[in-house]
Design brief:
Number of helices: 3
Oligomer: single chain
CATH topology of the largest domain: endopeptidase fold (from Nostoc punctiforme)
Number of strands: 15
CATH architecture of the largest domain: Alpha-Beta Complex
Largest sheet: 5 strands, antiparallel
């Protein structure tokens, strides 16, 4: 949970250089009933035109261009070459109605995920095999489940601690030894990967590095905010462990430190996740 803290640590983040690429399919494509629209944004005033490719890869044949600011109709989406652009790094490519593909990294759709049906023949890329550091971090978080209660302000990189007074609901946890959501993350990453995270969910999100939730993988931090999904409204964090599951500390009926099923469509889930282990 979000707490005031003087301990802040900016986790170093490598920012990939944006590359202007776009992608595949020659020939006009008929629109379906489930199309979406997007706006080309290549950064600039105006930015350079976006190349339309014959396939979802920057190496494929160029079959057209779309000017910065142009509206495109997205007939379907698929996975292809990873591209870094205006809206981060993604493997999603948009098949447009006029024919060809453009990288979703340069298309403003209002979402970091899929907004149109998958193109025929598309297969979802498998989650990468977690690194040793990610596996150790997940194991550290799992090792605490069912052992301690939720404690507002409790937990640190060294393990469970007494909480503080008082939670937003007025609960005094000064005599309760355990973890709150961000304290559990602190412990897991310190124990598993030797990383010192900030001590609040809000600062953990600010520290980054952030990637779109459409690229979610094991070892990522998932965040919840108010209905507006703003950074200032962040109030909860959990560790994604793969296979649609998270480890979290929350004051709930049953074990407060638990593994549960997770959906990116849950109310308040932030559109980006934090990846402390690259």
């Amino acid at each position: 949970m979000q707490l005031l803290s003087t301990r802040r640590r900016r986790i170093a983040t490598a920012v990939a250089t944006a590359a202007l690429v776009a992608a595949p399919l020659v020939g006009a494509v008929a629109a379906s009933a489930a199309t979406a629209t997007g706006t080309v944004n290549t950064t600039g005033n105006p930015g350079p035109a976006l190349t339309v490719r014959a396939a979802p890869t920057a190496a494929s044949e160029a079959v057209g261009k779309r000017s910065d600011g142009a509206t495109v109709t997205i007939v379907c989406q698929t996975y292809g070459q990873q591209v870094t652009g205006t809206y981060g790094t993604t493997r999603i490519w948009d098949r447009i109605r006029s024919g060809g593909y453009v990288s979703d990294a340069f298309i403003r759709t209002g979402s970091d995920g899929l907004v149109a049906p998958l193109c025929p023949g598309t297969t979802t890329p498998p989650e990468p095999t977690p690194s040793a550091a990610v596996k150790a971090t997940i194991a550290a978080a799992r090792s605490m489940t069912g052992k301690y209660p939720y404690s507002w302000g409790g937990g640190s990189y060294s393990g469970p601690t007494r909480g503080i007074c008082c939670s937003p609901s007025g609960i005094d946890d000064r005599q309760t030894v355990g973890f709150d959501c961000s304290g559990l993350m602190e412990y897991a990453f310190a124990k598993g990967a030797g990383l010192r995270l900030s001590s609040t969910s809000r600062s953990q999100y600010s520290d980054g590095p952030r990637v779109p939730i459409s690229q979610l993988r094991a070892g990522d931090l998932v965040f919840w905010s108010s209905s507006s999904r703003t950074t200032t409204g962040i109030h909860h964090v959990a560790l994604y462990v793969g296979d649609g599951l998270i480890v979290e500390a929350d004051r709930v009926s049953g074990p407060d430190l638990r593994v549960r099923a997770f959906s990116t469509g849950e109310t308040g889930v932030m559109p980006s996740v934090v990846r402390p282990i690259g």
